[in-house]
Design brief:
Growth Hormone, Chain: A; 2 domains; two-stranded antiparallel sheet
């Protein structure tokens, strides 16, 4: 029964608590790495340009995350995840060592940062694949994704604080090395967790998607449509942070922008928990439309609002829809693609949203220079409206459709986990 499904009961399923704890350790390293790299590389090279180029290279190459997820779907978690994490750890160790030796050349840091982004293991998608395996019923899966999303939101708020705490007793180069250790430890513990092993055993002999080839989940029209919606959502929300900084500075309260970001994050965390607790049915088209409409409404309210207390209240309310949007997208994605493609599909959901956010933020800078932060807020709200119209017109594509299935290979091992055992 739905009423018996609680966050605690989900964490007790199939040893998933250990996997979730491991993934949390590894994902915390991602919440810490950007600030740690910035401080370390700038301190070693005395150049913000070098630090910015390194962070840009790290972030840009991370858009390959879906391809790494596909590799895991094809070869298995044990064959891929630990090696990716080892590569990530070696890169950040090398950065830490160069900084400790006071190497001032920018190029090695940039190259190693790109390498770290290239090898960064897809821990979030891997954890969501485990959630999908232990929550066959939709209500439980939605609640699991809610918990996962809220914890990730909290991690990215806590990560910089952890970096600041370590810096009180150690140099930033050591913080970089610590992120590598955390990532490797979390990844190995995740792979060895009972839930991960159980998921691997369940994939043996199970049916899998019929030779999806290079297209993968992109063969599914509904999934492609979902990604376009996610791109629109990212474009809509992308101007927000840049516009908040500009608005705060325009009213002489630039130092208060951190409180505005906190209000947004708290609202998102609360919204995610409430969504998982009270939403009973999967109606992705209706849910996405309602959440986008709420986001558009509060986005429009930000246009004339200059009082920072009022702005914080609006941001908290806007944040209530933020986490549920991604939660709904993940659940919808699971229903649109076969089990063997769910890990890659969820990675694409996150990636397309991030691409939209990056493009939206870049556009916001141009709009702010021309018309102030109000214009950028209005553009974001307008993009929400356009995305909503697009969803209303073509939303029937989000209805889950049967996908072709083929038997597992003759030796009884499905393609998803050929070497897991």
């Amino acid at each position: 029964m739905t009423d018996t499904i609680t966050y605690r009961s989900i964490l007790r399923r199939d040893g998933v608590f250990i996997a979730f704890f491991a993934a949390t350790i590894g994902r915390l390293s991602y919440a810490m790495i950007s600030l740690a790299l910035l401080l370390t590389i700038q301190g070693a090279t005395h150049s913000y340009a070098a630090a910015g180029a390194s962070l840009g290279g790290y972030a840009l190459i991370s858009f390959l995350m879906p391809l790494k997820s596909r590799l895991i779907d094809r070869l298995g978690t044990k064959a891929v995840l630990p090696w990716l994490s080892l590569g990530f750890t070696l890169c950040v160790f090398a950065i830490s060592g160069l900084a400790f030796e006071n190497v001032g050349a920018a190029l090695p840091y940039i190259a190693l940062s790109v390498g770290a982004g290239l090898f960064a293991p897809p821990l979030g998608p891997s954890m969501r694949a485990i959630w999908a395996g232990v929550t066959p019923e939709s209500a439980a899966r939605r609640r699991a994704y809610s918990l996962d999303g809220v914890v990730e939101e909290v991690l990215y708020a806590v990560g910089p604080l952890v970096v600041g705490g370590i810096l009180l007793i150690a140099p930033s180069s050591l913080v970089v090395a610590i992120t590598g250790v955390m990532n490797l430890m979390g990844t190995i513990l995740l792979v060895l967790s009972p839930a991960s092993r159980h998921n691997s055993r369940k994939s043996r002999g199970a049916t899998i998607s019929a030779s999806s080839g290079w297209a993968g989940p992109f063969k599914r029209r509904g999934f492609v449509f979902l990604l376009l919606v996610l791109l629109g959502i990212g474009l809509s929300g992308g101007p927000l942070e840049v516009s908040l900084v500009a608005r705060s500075e325009s009213v002489g309260e630039g130092s208060s922008v951190g409180y505005l970001f906190a209000a947004l994050s708290i609202g998102s965390a609360v919204g995610g928990l409430l969504w998982g607790r009270f939403i009973r049915e999967d109606r992705p088209r209706l849910h996405l439309a309602a959440l986008i409409a709420v986001s558009a409404a509060f986005g429009l309210m930000l246009v004339p609002t200059t009082n920072l207390i009022a702005t914080a209240c609006v941001l908290f309310c806007a944040g209530l829809a933020s986490a549920p949007l991604l939660i709904t997208a993940y659940v919808c994605s699971d229903g649109l693609v076969p089990a063997g493609e769910q890990r890659e599909a969820s990675t694409w959901v996150n990636t397309l949203n991030n691409i939209g956010v990056a493009l939206g933020a870049a556009t916001a800078g141009i709009l702010i220079d021309r018309g102030g932060p109000g214009l950028a807020f209005a553009a974001g709200a307008g993009m929400y409206v356009l995305t909503l119209i697009f969803l209303v017109i073509f939303g029937q594509l989000l209805s889950p459709r049967p996908v072709e299935q083929i038997p597992a290979s003759r030796d009884g091992v499905g393609n998803e986990d050929l070497v897991d055992g």
